[in-house]
Write a structure and sequence with these properties.
Helices cover 8% and strands 52% of the residues. It folds into 2 domains: 78 residues, no CATH class; 70 residues, OB fold (Dihydrolipoamide Acetyltransferase, E2P) (Beta Barrel), CATH 2.40.50. The radius of gyration is 23 Å and the shape is elongated. It starts with a strand and ends with a strand. It is mainly beta.
């Protein structure tokens, strides 16, 4: 069975590309991000200038023209057709204590704009320091705890706008 990839270019053009077509491509890798491709006797210089591996989106420069490319496999298409959004679990609006412990440090303030995986606070539990990271990009709406406070499991720590 041949794998088929759906490739969307600049949000407007969509192509189906098979695994066999990718394998038969006449390409020479120049570096981790650059390649030289020969297609129908025409040369192409390519460079991946940005990559978002989680969303399978890439910014690719081909002969000095820049394109945004999104690649989907059969599972991605099925998930989309079923109405599930990749990353829907990232709609977390509050952080609660995963375990009882002591707040050692708070790295954010109300109104701060933060990115996913930004450290929010350090929770000491069972003599171990646990760094609580932001599950998504957002703005801090409120901080319900203070440094040095003892918290129980499930207690609200931080809310997002």
């Amino acid at each position: 069975m041949t794998t088929i990839y759906k490739v969307n270019v600049n949000g407007s053009s969509e192509f189906d590309i098979t695994e066999d077509q990718v394998s038969s491509l006449d390409a020479i890798k120049i570096s981790n991000t650059k390649s030289h491709i020969l297609q129908d006797h025409s040369p192409f210089q390519t460079e991946i200038t940005a990559a978002n591996f989680n969303n399978k989106e890439y910014t690719v420069k081909v002969n000095n023209n820049t394109y945004t490319v999104a690649i989907s496999d059969a599972l991605d298409v099925l998930i989309k057709d079923m109405g599930f959004a990749v990353g829907a679990s990232k709609l977390v609006n509050s952080i609660k204590a995963p375990m009882p412990g002591l707040i050692l440090d708070i790295s954010v303030a109300v109104g701060d704009t933060i990115e996913e995986n930004h450290p929010l606070l350090i929770l000491e539990a069972m003599k171990m320091e646990n760094s609580i990271l932001s599950p998504r990009d957002g703005v801090i709406k409120s901080i319900a705890v203070t440094k040095g406070a003892a918290v129980e499991k499930g207690v609200l720590l931080i809310e997002f706008e």
